[in-house]
Design a protein that fits this description.
binds zinc ion; globular; 6 helices
Length: 315
């Protein structure tokens, strides 16, 4: 049988809000500096993951997508549609919003829009995020922004380890200091920055803002969509909680405690596995916190063993 399980080598991205937690907490061998993002499963041209093992070792994920479509099942998209990251917010991120597919296609050279979701891997006791806003209309949104009424405009929400947030395009959001997140998103790098706390860089410059585009794409009033987590399997060896399942992605959390043979919820397409805690094996191959794997569409049921937690995404 041909190989069905591929480990991916991530790409690390320096960010002004990043830190060193990707090394300290995930054991990644990261470059110097403030590293904010690990692009664990990516075929985006701004940072592509590389296959680590087997006959495709050294190939980029986009090569696999283009040359071996059978690994991915019934794919219809031209480009690999998902991007899985680990984010280390060592400082507050700028407040931002992403366009949907239609707006991005029209205004951003055919890029995809960006709907994303966050699984909180770890956070400080008092950590929170910015999620949504309090304006009733776009006119009010504009007035509050122009008047600098950020405290009134932005909604803050406390977060705890294990929380999950669905962040559809059009949602105003920001991770805040002290949060480590596993993010599953559409494969897009289009972000409109709304507010950066008036922070200056070393040369006294402010970062660019995109106020008009932010107002154009924001959902007003804020309409939270909070998918209810569903326990789909619960045995001594395996617990699966479905976190979200929509047109963009199905995301579930797996907790493995022992040995179990299990097939994925969508048997005719590929799966992306990111180990967020512990260690064990999949199909006899050792896995540990920080590993990212692609499972081919034809893999069928896999043997999971050990004691670990993973976030599993399917298109
Ligand atoms: Zn975002």
């Amino acid at each position: 049988m041909t190989e069905q399980l591929f480990f991916l080598d991530p790409v690390f991205q320096e960010r002004i809000w990043g830190g060193r937690a990707l090394e300290e907490k995930f054991g990644y061998n990261i470059p110097e500096g403030n590293i904010g993002e690990c692009w664990g499963i990516s075929a985006h041209p701004n940072g592509e993951s590389t296959i680590r093992n087997g006959i495709y070792a050294g190939k980029k994920l986009s090569d696999l997508w283009g040359c071996t479509p059978e690994l991915f099942g019934k794919q219809v998209e031209e480009v690999f549609p998902l991007l899985v990251k680990v984010l280390d917010a060592d400082a507050d991120l700028s407040v931002q919003v992403h366009p949907d597919d239609a707006y991005a296609r029209a205004h951003e050279n055919g890029e995809l829009g960006k709907t994303e979701c966050w699984y909180i891997v770890d956070c400080a006791d008092d950590a929170d995020i910015i999620f949504g806003h309090n304006a009733a209309t776009k006119e009010e949104m504009q007035q509050m922004i122009e008047a600098g009424q950020w405290e009134q405009f932005l909604r803050r929400q406390p977060v705890a380890k294990g929380d999950f947030f669905y962040v559809p395009s059009g949602t105003i959001h920001a991770l805040c200091k002290g949060t480590i997140v596993l993010e599953v998103q559409q494969s897009s790098d289009t972000t409109y920055r709304l507010y950066d706390y008036d922070r200056q860089d070393e040369d006294g410059n402010l970062r660019d803002l995109h106020i008009a585009k932010s107002i154009a794409v924001s959902t007003v009033p804020h309409t939270p969509v909070n998918p209810v987590p569903v326990i789909v399997t619960e045995t001594d060896e395996l617990k699966i909680v479905e976190l979200v399942n929509n047109d963009f992605f199905a995301v579930a959390k797996y907790t493995i405690s022992g040995t179990v043979i299990h097939g994925f919820a969508k048997p005719d397409t590929y799966a992306l596995i990111s180990v967020v805690e512990g260690q064990g094996s999949i199909e006899g191959k050792p896995v540990k916190k920080g590993d990212h794997l692609l499972v081919a569409a034809q893999a069928g049921a896999l043997t999971f063993a050990g004691s670990f937690e993973a976030v599993v995404a399917q298109p």
